[in-house]
Design a protein that fits this description.
Keywords: Amino-acid biosynthesis, Aromatic amino acid biosynthesis, ATP-binding, Cytoplasm, Kinase, Nucleotide-binding, Transferase. The protein is α/β, with parallel strands linked by helices. The protein contains 25 helices and 31 strands. The longest helix has 14 residues. The chain starts with a strand and ends with a helix. The structure holds adenosine-5'-triphosphate and ligand LCLUPRNS.
Length: 655
């Protein structure tokens, strides 16, 4: 089945939870099988690769229990079994090494045809050296085969893991079961080192001893004691590259839920590369990562993806969207993964780029000019996926860019189901994110003077293409007009009421901001932010007649924002969440201690009667300044502006 990607006609504004890590899940399953006691694994990835691993462990005689968001492993292995590893590189390498640790065993292995061609030689040579006897059914050193096993007794191994880091990971984990210490020396290094570091760290988390005394040398002790009884799998950092790239492709904001901290997964580094490339800004918000649109420069860029090679496809697929040449190096080893990824990506990307060049280790994408891209694509680009989940998902993200401007689909993915290898409902989630981003949301931001309402509201509106309305400026404008007419608050409500009758208000739009105008004219900031206005505005704002005069106008701003095709509305003030839009999708109450606010104003060179204004605003009878019911309180006293903006955008993305 082919699948047309519907582009995002609004900037992405969504929260996405990527699944648990495939690499961690399959390592955890194997380490649990080696633990000698029952281990419960939480948040495992449920996908073809992990199902294959779990099924193989079952065939080996382990008891596997699958429940809501957990899988447990207990028992011990049999001496013979038939194992089918599909095209799962981790299952293929890890289980081949693992069964060789079993004394007097005999095992039969088969796989998908794609796996027949993937590198096994380095691993099998090492296992033969350790005593295993392989019989190959087709090509030497390849699937399918049978193996007679003798167990491991430790000693020295010289290992060729130049073609796949999984070969080294497999040997490292399996040697835990050897009867004495094993010393491993690499012949010629390895690729994707972060995955080896992941293996070492996870072995230690399980309580298995491994030392890395120098680069290319490892010592595994025969410590069979496992320290843990449960293990929680982190969100997959490679999968998280797709929502990060989505923020760039759609010029929006995506909250990547439970984004892993640096530690186990090298692919968390993708966020930094995207940031260096100027494609997104990344901000930590608690456990999550917020990826925000950025303005990339027009200069050609080049990045070495050797350490994060699973994410090179994500970077490559969106490169044609930004009108500048992109070179990606360090990816030779990906030619022997689920597909020849360098060649496959070059072939597919060339369908929507001016030119793509590649050699053994790199790919260079020469895009069309940004303005040319839409003209060059006359009919939807059909992307072949070569049964490679990452080719499907990376192009899925590229297809979210609205290159025609009207939401016309331009990328069609062949066999999107191949994404089930690591993210079974990826395309469903992408489509849900598009729908979420289409929802018009009203954001109410309230708080006292100088808490940061304007700074935050304006920036959020700009990022999401929402319309920004500063209702404080409405009260200031009214105060200025009345004072200009010689009406002081002391003249009383009737005089104010009378004077308001002649005031005609309408709206002017400047970029993302809607400004209230009087008699069709803009009243400039310099006129409404004077000492005189500061001293009188709260007195006018306390009058029910003034509030009633502005209430209908302020509520009408939702309609204006929709009519002007803004993606949502951010309105700031004192009573937005309590009176103007009590049903707003997001209600935020900003606060900060008085000293901080006074200093912020002083930095601007403004002397403002903050506490006096706040007291008047809080104590008036009509629409006083209160924390609205259902609002999120953010105390900004010890937060930078960027942190408050990120927190607010995260709340909007999640609403
Ligand atoms: N988190 C923050 N850290 C440091 N400075 C900040 C922060 N938030 C805002 N500021 C600064 O404080 C000043 C007041 O901010 P801002 O105008 O956004 O507040 P406000 O709530 O809209 O004020 P008012 O209601 O009086 O218009 C500005 O100079 C702004 O740059
Ligand atoms: N929704 C609102 C917005 C503002 N006011 C009053 C109270 C403030 O002191 C004054 C100026 O606002 P600022 O520019 O400081 O945001 O306007 C209000 O009563 N209700």
């Amino acid at each position: 089945m082919d699948y047309k990607i519907e582009p995002f006609t609004k900037p992405a504004c969504a929260a996405i939870q990527a699944p648990g890590s495939k690499s961690i899940t399959n390592r955890a399953l194997l380490l649990a099988a080696m633990a000698g006691q029952k281990i419960k694994i939480f948040n495992p990835l449920v996908s073809r690769d992990s199902q294959i691993m779990a099924q193989c462990l079952k065939n080996l005689g382990f008891e596997i229990e699958e429940g809501e968001n957990f899988i447990s492993v207990s028992g011990s292995p049999k001496k013979s079994a038939k194992l089918f590893v599909g095209n799962a590189g981790t299952a293929a390498r890890f289980l081949t090494a693992f069964v060789c640790a079993i004394k007097d065993g005999e095992f039969e292995f088969d796989s998908d045809e794609e796996m027949y061609k993937r590198p096994m030689r380095g691993l099998i040579e090492a296992l033969e050296h350790l005593g295993a006897e392989f019989t190959f059914k087709k090509e030497s050193f390849s699937f399918p085969f049978s193996v007679k096993t003798k167990g491991f007794s430790g000693g020295e191994i010289s290992l060729d893991a130049t073609q796949s880091s999984q070969i080294l990971s497999a040997i490292l984990m399996s040697q835990t079961l050897a009867s004495s210490e094993t010393s491993i020396t690499l012949k010629g290094g390895t690729v994707s080192k972060p995955f080896v570091e992941m293996t070492v760290k996870m072995m230690r988390q399980f309580g298995f001893e491994v030392e890395c005394p120098s680069n290319g040398k490892y010592i595994v002790k025969n410590s069979k004691t496992c320290k843990i009884s449960s293990y929680t799998v982190e969100t997959d950092a490679t999968a998280a590259s797709y929502p990060i790239a989505l923020a760039a492709a759609t010029s929006g904001a995506v909250l990547v839920k439970n984004f892993p901290r640096e530690g186990l997964q090298g692919d968390v580094g993708f966020a930094q590369v995207m940031q260096k490339a100027g494609l997104v800004k990344c901000r930590r918000v608690g456990n999550d990562l917020l990826a925000l649109k950025s303005e990339p420069s027009a200069e050609a860029c080049e990045f070495d993806f050797n350490d994060i090679s699973d994410t090179f496809l994500t970077f490559a697929a969106i490169a044609p969207l930004f009108g500048r040449t992109t070179k990606i190096t360090g990816i030779a080893h990906t030619r022997k993964q689920e597909s020849d990824r360098v060649e496959a990506m070059a072939r597919e990307i060339s369908k929507f780029a001016k030119k793509v060049e590649f050699d053994e280790d790199s790919i260079t994408i020469f895009p069309y000019e940004k303005s040319e891209l839409a003209q060059k694509i006359s009919s939807p680009v059909k992307i072949e996926t070569y049964k490679d989940h990452r080719i499907a998902m990376s192009h899925g993200v590229a297809g979210c860019a609205d290159i025609f401007g009207g939401g016309k689909a331009w990328i069609e993915i062949r066999d999107p189901q191949c994404s089930s290898k690591t993210w079974p409902d990826f395309f469903k989630i992408l489509e849900q994110s598009r729908k979420d981003s289409m929802k018009f949301k009203t954001v109410a931001i309230d708080g006292g003077a100088a808490v940061g309402k304007s700074s935050v509201s304006k920036e959020c509106a700009k990022t999401l293409n929402y319309m920004h309305v500063d209702t404080g400026s409405h009260y200031r404008t009214i105060a200025y007009i009345l004072l200009d007419k010689g009406i002081a608050p002391s003249l009383g409500e009737d005089a104010v009421s009378q004077a308001l009758k002649g005031v005609e208000i309408s709206t002017l739009i400047f970029g993302n901001s809607a400004r209230m105008s009087v008699g069709g004219k803009e009243i400039e900031d310099s006129l409404i932010r004077t000492d005189k206005v500061n001293q009188n505005v709260s007195l006018f704002a306390a009058m029910p007649q003034v509030r009633e005069f502005l209430k209908g106008y302020q509520r009408s701003m939702e309609g204006v924002a929709k009519e002007k095709n803004f993606a949502g509305l951010v309105m700031e003030g004192r009573d937005i969440g309590s009176v103007i839009f009590p049903n707003a999708e997001i209600k935020i109450f900003l606060d900060a201690d008085e000293e901080t606010r006074r200093k912020r104003r002083a930095n601007e060179g403004i002397s403002d009667s903050i506490s006096k204004r706040d007291a008047l605003d809080k104590n008036r009878k009509t629409a006083p300044l209160v924390r609205p019911e259902g609002s999120v309180l953010i105390d900004t006293s010890n937060m930078s502006k960027e942190e408050v903006i990120a927190k607010t955008l995260a709340l909007i993305a999640e609403a």
